[in-house]
UniProtKB/TrEMBL annotation:
Its EC number is 2.4.1.-. It comes from the Eukaryota. This is Glycosyltransferase. GO terms for molecular function: UDP-glucosyltransferase activity. Keywords: Glycosyltransferase, Transferase. Pfam families: UDPGT. It is an enzyme of class 2 (transferase). PANTHER family: GLYCOSYLTRANSFERASE. Belongs to the UDP-glycosyltransferase family. SUPFAM superfamilies: UDP-Glycosyltransferase/glycogen phosphorylase (SSF53756). It comes from Rhynchospora pubera. CDD domains: GT1_Gtf-like. Gene3D superfamilies: Glycogen Phosphorylase B. The lineage of its organism: Eukaryota, Viridiplantae, Streptophyta, Embryophyta, Tracheophyta.
């Protein structure tokens, strides 16, 4: 194990409870955070989770237990929202049932409350979705930290867009290509077509209702832990510390691996599928495009089929993780396609060990939906991105990596892009093939971006090493929580 900065010593371990939401990416990121806490000498992390979601992280927890760095689980039933047993997160729920997962999250308030009252941990790190924990925490004299798996840039952009939300809704056609200028940002001007803004910003839905509660919970809580590293987005981190949180800790990339602990990253969130890594071993350095759109986004069958042809026509090596179409079936795969691409393309149905793949020397580009975790993992592995955002904050994230940082290129800029499935065009195969072959051409722009991505990877590594910004921020968090525990204990004794 790499040596670690050691925070202040305490007599007893700091008991930290972590509560992830029901999104696979958030569950994995929070488990990574729990691991970073567990390998510190003076923290005892416990994750509060539901049964099927616990199975996702069990392999990681088993490895930690073998190392003598256990993370405890406190399992409570998944709320009854009309889903079959075992369906407890966005990745496994059909798109038509996604609202049930969000409803289940909202129904967790009583169970969280009773667990926290019964166990009274020293600190709670709860996902951004669980705004109510901020209300319970002071009553129990426990500091509440918000965990924000996406980075600082999307948070600042969304918060600032929310300030002008009524203008956006009243003045603009919400399906249009008309651009909105994001107010009060440092750095280059960022403007975004209305059609690429998250739907909760431009129309009323459950998240629009929750947004103010989430923002207030974040501001009123003890502080915020963000999965990012300072050098990735320094000007936005500075602004965030000043205006967006009482205390901010930038502790990522939480999934970072120095490569020496392969078992953890191979088993992260899945069953340790290693055949794809063997396949990558047989490919030339930097020659493979890794294609994956996160844990829950959906494509139409028409789009999946077009993507299959596009990858075939690019003539380049590819490793494509496919989660099915609208109905999670694979009937859209073109006839004899797998046979034709066999020598240079591998398709994985289901779950892939993404971090291990991105670390592989054969991977030279990542076609991604711009989920924050995927972008951060690409940054920490030095892989440039071909961007294809789909929903939510992904078009915002794309702007940081492509326009501000300059180590990514858009797959397609023609036609209608946007966050609404029914209103966007199918990206044509010729555009996909062209974008991939151009990006992978030696000596071209792709090479420049590969170099820039390598620089970013060096910065991510430095941040996570002893004395680096993320390592120091995590230690500062622990020190601050230990100090707060001391204050709470003292005031409880005085109150006796
Ligand atoms: N992931 C993975 N294997 C897969 C698909 C996703 O390991 O086959 C992981 C990936 O490494 C990342 C997370 O799932 O940590 C996806 O998070 P992101 O924020 O990119 O997207 P989301 O799933 O929230 O859309």
């Amino acid at each position: 194990m790499a040596s670690l900065d050691v925070p202040l010593q305490v007599q007893t371990k700091l008991r930290v409870f972590l509560i992830p939401s029901f999104m696979t990416s958030h569950i994995l990121a929070m488990t990574d955070l729990a691991r970073l806490l567990a390998i510190r000498p003076n923290v005892e992390p416990t994750i509060i989770i539901t049964p099927a979601n616990a199975t996702l992280i069990q392999p990681t927890l088993d490895l930690l237990a073998d190392m003598g760095r256990p993370v405890q689980l406190l399992i409570h039933p998944f709320p009854s929202v009309g889903l079959p047993p075992g369906i407890e997160n966005l990745a496994t729920a059909p798109s038509s049932d996604e609202w049930r997962i969000h409803k289940a999250q909202d129904m967790c308030q009583p169970v969280h409350e009773s667990i926290l009252r019964a166990h009274r941990p020293d600190a709670i790190i709860a996902d951004v979705a669980f705004w109510w924990v901020t209300d319970i925490a002071p009553e129990l004299s426990i500091p509440r930290i918000t965990f924000y798996p996406p980075g600082v840039f999307p948070q600042v952009v969304l918060t600032n867009l929310f300030k002008i939300r009524s203008d956006i809704i009243s003045q603009l056609d919400v399906t249009s290509a008309e651009r909105v200028n994001v107010p009060d940002l440092p750095g280059p001007e960022i403007n975004i077509p209305v059609s690429e803004l998250p739907t909760f910003l431009v129309e009323d839905n459950f998240l629009a209702d929750d947004w103010m509660k989430i923002t207030m919970a974040q501001l009123n809580g003890f502080g915020v832990v963000v999965n990012t590293f300072y050098d990735l987005e320094p000007e936005y981190c500075d602004l965030y510390r000043k205006d967006h949180a009482k205390r901010a800790y930038f502790v990522g990339p939480v999934a970072y691996s120095s490569g020496g602990d392969d078992q953890r990253i191979v088993k992260r969130g899945g069953n340790g599928h290693t055949a794809c890594l063997d396949w990558l071993d047989g490919k030339e350095k930097g020659s493979v495009v890794y294609v994956c759109f996160g844990s829950w986004c959906h494509f139409t069958k028409a789009q999946l089929c077009e993507l299959a042809f596009g990858l075939e026509e690019s003539g380049k090596n590819f490793l494509w993780v496919v989660r099915g179409g609208e109905d999670e079936e694979f009937g859209w795969i073109p006839e004899r396609w797998e046979e034709r691409v066999r020598s240079r393309g591998l398709i994985i149905r289901g779950w892939a060990p993404q971090v291990a793949i991105l670390q592989h020397k054969s991977v030279g580009a990542f076609m991604t939906h711009c989920g924050w975790n995927s972008l951060l993992e690409a940054a920490s592995c030095g892989v440039p991105v071909l961007t294809w955002p789909l929903v939510f904050d992904q078009f915002i994230n794309e702007r940081l990596f492509v326009d501000v940082k300059g180590w990514g290129a858009r797959v397609w800029e023609g036609g209608n892009r946007g966050t609404k499935l029914g209103e966007k065009n199918v990206v044509p195969r010729a555009a996909i093939a062209g974008a991939v072959s151009k990006f992978m051409e030696p000596g071209g722009n792709g090479d420049k971006m590969r170099n820039k991505a390598q620089e970013m990877a060096a910065m991510a590594k430095a941040a996570m090493q002893e004395g680096g910004s993320s390592s120091k921020d995590l230690n500062r968090l622990i020190d601050d929580l230990i100090a707060e525990k001391g204050k709470c204990n003292a005031s409880l004794e005085n109150g006796k």
